[in-house]
From TrEMBL:
Residues 366-481, 765-877 form the ABC3 transporter permease C-terminal domain. It comes from Actomonas aquatica. PANTHER family: ABC TRANSPORTER PERMEASE YTRF, MEMBRANE COMPONENT OF TRANSPORTER-RELATED. Belongs to the ABC-4 integral membrane protein family. It holds the Pfam family MacB_PCD. It is a multi-pass membrane protein. The chain crosses the membrane at residues 99-121, 360-384, 415-437, 457-477, 509-528, 761-786, 816-835, 847-869. Keywords: Cell membrane, Membrane, Transmembrane, Transmembrane helix. Residues 101-324, 508-725 form the MacB-like periplasmic core domain. This is ABC transporter permease. It is found in: Cell membrane.
Length: 884
């Protein structure tokens, strides 16, 4: 048969399905016509009317058989049978609304949560980065062995390293850069004559946006002409800044705005989805991008983060080996170049997501366990419903319905329920995804791009189909055995016998598995929660509570900052409710920078430092340590006399002092940054989970900086303090903007944001799983009580007390829960190894957490058994004995 003929026949059969009444009427008319013709022929042969009609019927054959044969030939029988099954299913579900609603809700929870988690995992881990040739994008990081903490300065490169790679490497199509230290300084943007606002700028090279596949919504990207040092300054603004600060004005292109006191031309507006910020600055607001040129960074240290695209067929390992040779050549070619510069090539996707891989995979495992619990619960509901339909199935079997026909009907009912559950799950997943995507304070790359896309919907369809088949097949197979002994089944149903005991055993097994999985999730949630508590209890070395940071941007050269900052500090300290204040140019969590420091042999011998290493540098004012509650362990704080007319001084943290001066008193010793005048306690600058690092503090009068944060310790509410500081700032210079003011606790919370989110999700999954397990326990015990009504009545007639009956029912519930709990404890011991990266200060086997989870499971089980126990205790012995 040709393909055209096949489709022609298929089309005709499909048309026959939808034109069934018309075609049936035509067939009846045709058969009636044949019957009349045969009857007339028989009459013409001399037969009587009755004999003629009888002979015509015999000649034509069975009308019903001919009709069925014709219908099967002209249409698609399986489609008609499916329509019959669907009609029967909807009639059944209308009669059993409570069962249908519960089943759909349970399925919606399982399917929806798994779809949302899959979307998160797919967006962050599985999907390629949203850039051309994303599989060839790599990060080229430095490899400074003197700084094991891997702060920004030890991961970034100098200009000469970048240029050496560009000129000598053949492994890359392109190598572009951005300045990760850009946000260390903010800039006042003059919106109009009366409005000035603070903005965050990031400096990028001309080709970085094309490398990442970023196109402007309006205007253009940076060009070669823009990268010329003496060229007119230009800027590209984000969609958010365009909308919020310029009202979405389409005439913004070509408009000159004053940023940092300089006129700069806006040449482009980025799309609403800022790929660069989502990849490299999640949870941080970026307002605009300026051009980065080699010349304006040439005299700096390590300030460039390099992103490259490998040439076709070049592996990261091959590029890494080539760059090792390039860096060795640069060591000999460039005068005064230190020998600890390296080049490490790693896939960009891995660099951005490696720290999240194990936590997200564990989250996916937890979601899969919830789906398994849902599946067991759904299977138990189908078995419970099937027990009440035994008579119906037996009648259908007695009337000729084969096992295959019954099996198909039951699977159709399961599929319909799962389909409605999937629709509900779609709504749940969509809401959860929207909620997560709007969490702009969570530091997860590409989180703002999270959406319910085609891949997520396909995943939902697959798990829904698997749930329908796996959960529906077992109960359907068990219930479809009604045709094995239809008469016996009818007899047992009529007598109210114990035919349902095997179904109860099957449901009990499913409930035990539910409790086991729920117990494992409860233990995991307990470990994750304890880890979060441990992180929140970490001593940061400073106190974030009641500490506020006000960004101060000044339109004057750095050497003129001190005459302005000093009176601002005095005015702040004079405000009511302010107990301490000070300036810093390196806000914890948010800004990172490393300088080199070495110790000389003695204050008089400064020929060569004993050791030279990298340390985080913070340029601060007197009073900063008091404001942040950083303990001054030895020596003194900075004073206003520590200025450019006096010898350079430095304060070290305890860890750096011990490293530089392990065998002598650090106070009074000489370093490359000045004389050591004090030792302060170590702080965790990068967040609670960051290791302690080397830190040094320099006085702001000796080391000017571009922007500062005024750190204010006050018990006043934020709104009141903001108003007082705005007045103090305006009194000194009304032209300066009142910049962003934030509680430092917000930054600490942002550092913990991804852990908080993952812990919250795992805890939510555990709560849902316990609720589902309790629902399953309740269903089994309630059904068991219904089955044992006569037995309970006999026991009560023989003298059993209501308390004994209640204890017996609750005891049955707890026995099932304990069986499941034992399996859950073993499962948790194995599964919790997957969440090792989420654990902080707690072992995978923590006896207190395991015991707490066990108690929670048993409490839920007890509550699940109380209602059936109360119902059992209300059984009237006389009514129960008369029931049959």
């Amino acid at each position: 048969m040709s393909l055209a003929a096949f489709f022609q026949r298929l089309t005709a059969r499909l048309r026959a399905v939808f034109q069934k009444p018309t075609l049936d009427a035509d067939l009846d008319e045709e058969l009636r016509h044949h019957l009349e013709c045969l009857t007339e022929d028989n009459l013409a042969r001399g037969m009587s009317p009755a004999a003629a009609r009888r002979a015509a019927h015999l000649s034509l054959g069975s009308i019903d058989a001919a009709t069925e044969l014709h219908r099967d030939t002209r249409s698609l029988p399986w489609l008609e049978h499916l329509a019959q099954d669907l009609r029967h299913t909807f009639r059944q579900l209308r009669r059993e609304r409570t069962f249908a609603v519960i089943a759909v809700l349970v399925l919606a929870i399982g399917v929806g949560l798994n779809t949302a988690v899959f979307s998160l995992i797919n967006t962050v881990l599985l999907r390629p980065l949203p850039a051309p040739a994303a599989e060839r994008l790599v990060e080229i990081s430095n490899g400074d062995p003197a700084n094991a903490d891997r702060d920004l300065s030890s991961r970034t490169h100098r200009v000469d390293s970048w240029e050496g790679m560009l000129n000598q490497s053949r492994s890359f199509d392109a190598i572009e850069a951005y300045d990760p230290f850009s946000l260390r300084q903010t800039y006042p943007v003059e919106i109009d004559a009366a409005t000035t606002q603070t903005s965050n700028l990031v400096f990028v090279t001309q080709g970085l946006f094309p490398l990442l596949g970023i196109h402007p919504e309006l205007g253009r990207l940076f060009s070669t002409a823009d990268a010329i040092d003496d060229g007119a300054p230009v800027i590209i603004i984000t969609h958010q800044m365009w909308q919020q600060r310029f009202g979405g004005d389409p005439a913004i292109i070509g408009r000159s705005v004053r940023i940092g006191g300089r006129p700069i031309t806006v040449i482009g507006v980025l799309p609403a989805t800022d790929t660069f910020a989502q990849l490299f600055y999640p949870a941080v607001r970026v307002d605009a991008y300026a051009i980065l040129t080699p010349e304006n960074r040439r005299n700096y240290g390590n300030t460039l983060q390099l992103i490259g695209r490998l040439a076709p067929d070049v592996t990261p390992a091959a590029a890494d080996a080539e760059l090792d040779l390039v860096m060795q050549r640069l060591l000999t070619e460039i005068p005064n170049r230190s020998d600890f510069h390296r080049a490490n090539v790693a896939p960009l996707h891995d660099v951005l997501t490696d720290r999240l891989r194990q936590p997200l995979l564990f989250l996916g495992t937890a979601a899969a366990l919830v789906l398994a619990i849902v599946a067991f619960n759904f299977g138990g509901l189908l078995l419970a419903r099937g027990a009440s339909r035994g008579r119906e199935l037996a009648v259908r079997a007695a009337l000729g319905a084969g096992r295959g026909r019954l099996l198909r009907q039951l699977l159709t009912e399961s599929a319909v329920l799962v389909s409605f559950g999937a629709l509900g799950g779609t709504l749940l997943a969509s809401g959860a995804i929207t909620f997560l995507a709007r969490r702009s304070s969570i530091e997860i790359p590409l989180l703002q791009g999270l959406q319910l896309d085609g891949t997520a919907l396909a995943f939902m369809v697959v798990i829904s189909a698997l749930t329908a088949v796996v959960c529906g097949l077992g109960p359907a197979w068990r219930l479809s055995r009604a045709d094995d002994d239809a008469c016996g089944a009818l007899h047992q149903q009529a007598r109210g016998g114990t035919a349902g005991r095997s179904l109860t055993h099957a449901r009990s097994l499913l409930v035990v598995l539910e409790v086991a999985l729920a117990s494992a999730l409860a233990i995991s949630a307990g470990l994750a929660t304890r880890s979060l508590q441990n992180v929140l209890a970490v001593d940061l070395g400073y106190e974030a509570r009641d500490l506020y940071a006000l960004r101060v941007d000044m339109l004057r050269p750095p050497e003129e900052h001190a005459p302005y900052l000093t009176p601002l500090l005095d005015r702040t300290l004079a405000l009511p409710g302010v107990s301490a204040a000070g300036f810093t140019d390196a806000l914890p969590i948010e800004r990172d920078r490393t300088w080199g420091i070495g110790a000389f042999k003695s204050p008089t011998d400064r020929s060569q430092p004993d050791e030279f290493l990298g340390a985080r540098v913070k340029i601060v004012s007197p009073g900063l340590f008091d404001a942040m509650n950083i303990a001054l362990l030895r020596g003194r704080d900075f004073t206003r006399l520590d200025d450019s007319e006096h010898p350079e001084v430095v304060i070290l943290n305890q860890r750096l002092a011990q490293r530089l001066f392990p065998d002598r008193d650090p106070i009074g010793q000489a370093t490359t940054q000045g004389e050591v005048i004090g030792i302060v306690a170590d702080t965790r600058h990068a967040g609670p989970e960051s290791p302690l690092s080397f830190e040094m503090y320099l006085p702001y009068r000796q080391q000017p900086s571009g922007s500062f944060d005024l750190m204010v310790r006050s018990s006043l509410p934020l709104a009141a303090l903001r108003q007082d500081l705005a007045s103090a700032l305006g009194a000194l210079d009304p032209s300066l903007p009142f910049s962003q003011m934030r509680p430092l606790s917000e930054l600490v919370d942002r550092a913990n944001s991804s852990r908080r989110m993952l812990t919250g999700l795992i805890g939510g999954f555990a709560g849902i799983s316990l609720a589902l397990a309790a629902l399953g326990l309740y269903g089994v015990i309630a059904y068991t009580v219904t089955q044992r009504t006569k037995e309970i009545g006999i026991r009560m007639a023989l003298g059993a007390t209501t308390s004994a009956v209640r204890a017996d029912v609750v005891g049955r519930t707890l026995r099932l829960a304990i069986l499941g709990l034992a399996g859950g404890l073993l499962l948790a011991l194995a599964a919790n190894q997957l969440m090792s990266s989420l654990l902080y200060g707690v072992a995978a086997f923590d006896l207190a957490i395991y015991a707490t989870a066990a108690v929670a499971v048993l409490v839920c089980a007890t509550f699940a058994g109380l209602l059936p126990a109360a119902r059992a205790a209300r059984v009237d012995p006389m009514v129960a004995l008369r029931a049959d």
